[in-house]
Write a structure and sequence with these properties.
The strands form three sheets. Strands 1, 2, 3, 4, 5, 6, 7, 8, 9, 10, 11, 12 and 13 form a 13-stranded mixed β-sheet that branches. Strands 15-18-17 form a three-stranded mixed β-sheet. The protein has a two-stranded antiparallel ribbon with strand order 14-16. The relative contact order is 0.10. Helices cover 31% and strands 32% of the residues. About 13% of the residues have low confidence. The longest helix has 14 residues. Helix 1 packs across helix 3. It has three domains: 87 residues, no CATH class; 128 residues, Jelly Rolls (Sandwich), CATH 2.60.120; 72 residues, 3-Layer(bab) Sandwich (Phage tail protein beta-alpha-beta fold). The chain has 316 residues and is α+β, with helices and mostly antiparallel strands. Keywords: Membrane, Transmembrane, Transmembrane helix.
Length: 316
Amino acid sequence: MIEQAAHWHATLGSETVTEEEKQACAAWRAAHPSHEAAFQRLLRVWAPLESLNDELKEPALSTVQAVAGRKLRRRGARLASLAGAVLLSGWLSFQWLLPAGMGADHATLAGERRELLLDDGSRLLLNSRTAIDVRYSDRERRIVLHRGELLIDVGRDAARPFIVATRYGTAEALGTRYAVRQTADDAAVVTVAHSRVRFCPAPEASAERCRLLREGEQSRAGADGAATSAIEVDVEAATAWTRGRLVVDDWPLPQVLSELGYHRRGWLIFHADSLQDLRVSGVFPIDDTDLALAILEANLPLTISRYGPVTRIARH
């Protein structure tokens, strides 16, 4: 959706736009209310970035590729910088397109964490940029995760299963504590901190396709409808965000920057390809991303420049 909106915005801004293209854009916007909403949201994001110089706009596409892990089709520099502006604002795929809190029972902003105590005694800790709905009935307890990440301590209720539903699958508690994340690169990731979880990829989940995850295991599922085999993970590291920390072990620098950007208000832009060979291990504060960036700058060949809400990271 966001790529389509960016494509049409760039097309209309081109000096070579044709009347047929204008009509096609109008037809696309009129085809569904979500199309027009995406287009208008994009206009509001792009407006304050028009004043940025080319030096800042130019790295945007590279940054998007680092966050998304895939290439975007280009139509000139305007489309590249426009897509970068939108995706770096935190909207990648459907769940990132939603404005904070729009239509959700509970939502957090960039850099915010929030704890919720539900009626059944379950405790939820919402990470940055997270939006959920609470759907409790006589038959089940269901949390709909639209975007972001949460850690759940499940209250006891033998009569009603506890389920977290994402776009890419469901995670049913067979124990008491686990984390679910709907990532920016179109996947759901489940990490079990205690006991077990049944993870079933969407759509049409069947017993044969579900994964039974045990304590200390993690799995992910994407748009292909398959869940990866369980892998062992350091649960303390995977849930370090609950304590205001990002723990990394031999990560490529673009991955670290993308994660810091998830907790930061404003935009981080960088050339992913030029930073890919820089590996990072350590513990970084996510409640003070300026400090985290200063630590990286002090230990790596980096220059960090700030232009209002935009922070540029470059290799020197």
